[in-house]
Amino acid sequence: xxxxxxxxxxxxxxxxxxxxxxxxxxxxxxxxxxxxxxxxxxxxxxxxxxxxxxxxxxxxxxxxx
Length: 65
Known about the structure:
This protein is mostly helical. 28% of the residues lie in helices and 6% in strands.
């Protein structure tokens, strides 16, 4: 299950997420979260655990998965 702090960062937008992610490159657990409808254009999700994440309607254009 994802840490609430991670969800707060990703909800601030891709720029905030990628800035934070650039400083925190460890494997992240986002499993079980609801990111439906979230604009994740260009988001760095490399090495993120995305099992059972709801991405319905999320924009993943240019996202690093």
